[in-house]
Design a protein that fits this description.
The complex is a heterodimer.
Chain A lengths: L12 H4 L6 H20 L2 H27 L7 H17 L4 H23 L5 H20 L1 H4 L6 E2 L3 E3 L2 E3 L2 H22 L3 H11 L1 H6 L4 H28 L1 E2 L6 H14 L4 H29 L5 H22 L3 H15 L8
Antiparallel strand pairs in A: 1-4, 2-3
Helix pairs in contact in A: 3-8, 3-11, 3-12, 3-13, 4-5, 4-6, 4-11, 5-11, 8-11, 9-11, 12-13, 12-15, 13-14, 13-15
Chain B lengths: L2 H32 L6 H18 L4 H24 L7 H23 L15 E3 L2 E3 L1 H20 L3 H11 L1 H6 L4 H27 L8 H12 L4 H26 L3 H16 L14
Antiparallel strand pairs in B: 1-2
Helix pairs in contact in B: 1-5, 1-6, 1-8, 1-9, 1-10, 2-3, 2-4, 2-8, 2-9, 3-8, 5-8, 6-8, 9-10, 9-11, 10-11
Classes of the chains: A mainly alpha, B mainly alpha.
Chain lengths: ~350, ~300
């Protein structure tokens, strides 16, 4: 019962190369998918709209960021800017009557276009300098968005997003928006799961390990870095559009500031570089933790009569957020994904751990 | 738009730029010794200013006692950061090191905010607000003093790097494996450079805090500091001074000319553009060492 690798003998290559060769993993995924499908019925509408939807869309975006940091090994400081470009483009397109699905793809295309133009210039350098040039991209995009009235609708204005229409069908219900978010997240997850098994994924990993060495064995490292930038920008841009249509319903420049970029990086680091389940866990952690911590500490200070001031309470989640990044990097640099993998490996053979090869 | 006005902007900007160079110098000191690009320099700057305020207003000490006390506290803090946060990261990929310094930045900012609150506080050094005239040009007295402090520190570092300990640091920055093999304590040298960097950050925090008040926005000096450091070359102290002069003057003139057209916020844009152009045209900066990568 516990020994989950028992009675699994692969007799042909197709079985062995399955995405999930173990029955236990497949079972878990089917159960999770089933829950995801029935979620609008079983969870309250508050949980659905304010926790599950942002979590799913952000996870999709973070998977895109993980593609460039975890797979291709290139730092990206301006991911929020990329998401913002997608969001603004798709909202503007939708306001001009473009159907929803085309508007969202346009957003992704615009992000890819700007991302790739920028990458052409930035990819000549690497490491620290690439990180700093993406930081500059973030500031420049921020500035352009907030100072060009045609984009932002004036300084610190909020641009209302119209209702999302997919295939001519207006989607208004909470459940409908949730399914849009779920669908996109699953698409990205499916892409990322399979990426490891393709030539593209292997080339990206070769570039991550050492780009010169990859070039020596015939992997065009500049080309693959460019592909990674383009793919992750596309995922980010589409996620931005979907984030606005399903969650925010309005777009302002502050939603895509440098703080958000850093938050996205924290999600990747806490989740684990290159880990897919880690992207889900890290996003949930960083996105949902501040609220939980805040109410917990508020309760604690009330119960114990600590009498903490409002300002102290407001900044404690940030303290914990910074401490988490530091702690994870020192103790478990591969993040929550690695913790999950450790637990899974331990339980895989339990209670026959000594039989491990 | 007459020439005198532009000259005034340029000179005041150049002096502000020398104060950006204070932040940049901190980044360079750490990068030189340990190749760690320190993105927590903004947090250190802000923390330094708050520690001075803590001694001065919470404990009620006179400001000229508080500043040395704060310098010592911050130097210890720099050593602590190096020991407990950065040393375990040695040899890890640059992505993780960058993320660590970012995490430290977030952590320090949040700690300062939760202790002292978000509202800005004045930090008085007793510099008078009276205008100072250099011929026909109006000069901001605080900027002039800040620029002078920055130059004094720079000259101090020039002499320091001629002393025995300074030579040791230069050896470490040249080749740390070789330094190790001749018996130099590399860890000690790196810790010393963190301490010096924290001290420089505190000075920057005090000077900027006396001009704009002490609040969270001090940590935004990071972008300027990093730009100055990259433009000057990540391992050149003299480079930061020149780059600071250039960036400060350019930024101030550009803001004076462009702000009325775009409605403000041009300073950040100028900094970002300078950063990106530097990286594209001359990634190793004005005076930096051009590293050759080996397989």
């Amino acid at each position: 019962m516990f020994y989950r690798q028992a009675r699994i003998f692969h007799t042909n290559y197709a079985d062995d190369r399955k995405l999930f060769p173990l029955f236990a993993d497949r079972l878990m995924i089917w159960v999770l998918l089933l829950f995801a499908v029935v979620a609008p019925v079983v969870v309250s509408s508050l949980t659905l709209t304010s926790y599950l939807v942002p979590w799913l869309v952000w996870t999709a975006a973070i998977l895109g960021l993980n593609l460039i940091i975890g797979f291709a090994g290139q730092f990206h400081f301006g991911y929020a800017a990329v998401i913002g470009i997608g969001a603004y483009t798709s909202v503007h397109a939708a306001r001009h009557g473009v159907p929803g699905e085309i508007a969202i793809i346009l957003g992704g295309a615009m992000s890819t276009l700007i991302g790739i133009t920028f990458a052409f210039a930035a990819l000549r350098v690497k490491g620290l300098y690439l990180a700093l040039s993406t930081l500059a991209l973030q500031f420049i995009v921020d500035w352009v968005i907030s100072h060009v009235d045609a984009i932002s609708g004036g300084v610190s204005a909020t641009l209302q997003a119209p209702d999302l229409t997919l295939l001519g069908q207006a989607i208004k219900s909470d459940a409908g928006l949730y399914y849009v978010a779920l669908g996109w997240c699953l698409m990205v997850t499916w892409f990322m799961l399979n990426l490891k098994r393709t030539g593209l994924g292997r080339a990206l990993i070769a570039v991550r390990e050492k780009d010169f060495a990859a070039a020596v064995i015939g992997v065009r490292s500049f080309y693959y870095k460019l592909v990674a930038f383009a793919a992750s920008s596309f995922i980010g841009g589409v996620s931005g559009g979907i984030l606005i249509f399903t969650f925010y319903h309005a777009v302002t420049a502050e939603q895509f500031s440098i703080t958000v970029s850093i938050q996205a990086l924290a999600m990747v680091i806490v989740g684990g570089l290159g880990s897919i389940i880690g992207s889900y866990l890290g996003t949930a952690f960083i996105l949902l933790m501040p609220g939980q911590i805040n109410s917990f500490i508020g309760w604690l200070s009330g119960a114990m009569g600590l009498g903490l001031g409002d300002e102290t309470l407001a900044h404690i989640p940030n303290v914990i957020y910074g401490a988490l990044i530091i702690g994870f990097l020192i103790i478990e640099p591969l993040g929550l994904g690695k913790l999950y993998a450790n637990a899974r490996n331990y339980l895989m053979l339990w209670p026959f751990g000594y039989s491990r090869k | 738009m007459d020439v005198m006005y532009l000259a005034e902007l340029g000179i005041n900007g150049a002096m502000a730029g020398l104060m950006y160079a204070l932040v940049g110098m901190g980044v360079v000191l750490i990068y030189k010794s340990s190749s760690v690009p320190n993105l927590s320099q903004g947090g250190l700057t802000m923390m330094g200013a708050y520690v001075v305020l803590f001694f001065a207003s919470t404990l009620g000490l006179p400001i000229w006692v508080s500043i040395p006390l704060a310098l010592v506290t911050m130097a210890l803090m720099g050593v602590g950061i190096e020991r407990f946060a950065l040393r375990p990261m040695a040899g890890r990929p640059i992505v993780m090191i960058l993320m660590m310094t970012l995490g430290l930045d977030i952590f320090m900012e949040a700690i300062a905010m939760s202790f002292w609150g978000g509202s800005g506080r004045p930090l008085r050094l007793g510099i008078s607000d009276d205008p100072m005239f250099l011929g026909p040009l109006l000069i901001n007295r605080s900027y002039a003093i800040g620029a002078a402090v920055s130059l004094v520190l720079f000259v101090g570092f020039l002499f320091f790097f001629k002393t025995r300990r300074g030579v040791v640091l230069r050896a470490i920055s040249d080749d740390y494996t070789a330094s190790w093999s001749v018996g130099i304590s590399v860890e000690g040298g790196v810790a010393l450079s963190w301490a010096m960097s924290a001290v420089v950050a505190t000075v920057a925090g005090v000077m900027w805090g006396s001009i704009q008040g002490v609040d969270q926005s001090l940590s935004l000096l990071l972008l300027k500091g990093v730009t100055v450091a990259v433009l000057g070359g990540m391992d050149s102290l003299g480079g930061t001074i020149l780059a600071g002069l250039f960036l400060g003057a350019l930024e101030s003139v550009a803001a004076g000319v462009l702000d009325p057209i775009f409605g403000g916020g041009t300073r950040e844009l100028v900094t970002a553009v300078v950063l990106i152009l530097t990286i594209m045209i001359r990634p190793h900066g004005l005076f930096g060492r051009h590293d050759i990568e080996r397989l």
